[in-house]
Amino acid sequence: MSEHWSGERPRYGKTIKVDNGLKAKSKRGDIGTTWWSRRFIEVLESFGMGGRLSRGRNYARQGQVLSLSLSTSMVIALVQGSRPTPYKARIAIKAFTTPEWQRIEHALAGKALYAAKLLAGEMPADIETLFASLGLQLFPATQREMTMDCTCPDWEVPCKHLAATCYLLAESFDNDPFEILAWRGRSREDLLERLRTLRGTTRAVAAREEAPPLTKCLDTFWQKQTTSSLTLGDPTAEVRPDAVLDQLDAVPITVRQSNLVDLLRPAYQALKPTD
């Protein structure tokens, strides 16, 4: 807030209406339809902001917010009030550090369902538990973890301009859960690339652990195997025609943006040992 204190709430003129502003989709009741956007609003309400947040609901629905941008740690909105010059509302949150993101990425890569849900536009229901297991919080735990300010003369936080920004921010989380993660410091593209790399490495390591080294079965690899003739690894295991692919390096080899092992595996699996 800009410095302003006169002992009473500043008086405003009539709000200048906006024709092409950003409007909340919700026309009545709560704003935010998914559990994660509602969770964000609930967190703000838990900080004692509930009554002040409601002041901005009409602003959000009337389209008084001219623009909204989100980047690492910072959300900035221009909100049209009663003065000709729009107010600038800012909501800042601390981004996770690089080591923290490395821990998060390894944890997410270990759960295929998490990446699948994120790609489908959903936030996994227990993702907060995963963050908590790492000693982190996806959503701010205290009001001190967030900073809000506005160029309007109102001294209360949040003012209606900030409140309208909070509601539209929650709806942006509805549309794309990656926005929450981007706010915390990792864009959709960077996160997915890291998960693809980590999951490719994990699959290769797991595959090598399952199959005996190729150097130990060169003489018998192309022979038809039976359970009784197997002497390497698990005696009940089945020798797979595509096991040789498991010996490739842990770093995936790509051909036209596709994993070479994934391209070759169907052909190897189609091979039938001769009697």
Automatic annotation (TrEMBL):
The keyword Nucleotidyltransferase does not apply. InterPro entries: Znf_SWIM (IPR007527). Pfam families: SWIM. PROSITE patterns: ZF_SWIM. Residues 139-170 form the SWIM-type domain. It comes from the Bacteria. Keywords: Metal-binding, Zinc, Zinc-finger. PANTHER family: SLR1429 PROTEIN. This is SWIM zinc finger family protein. It comes from Lentzea rhizosphaerae.
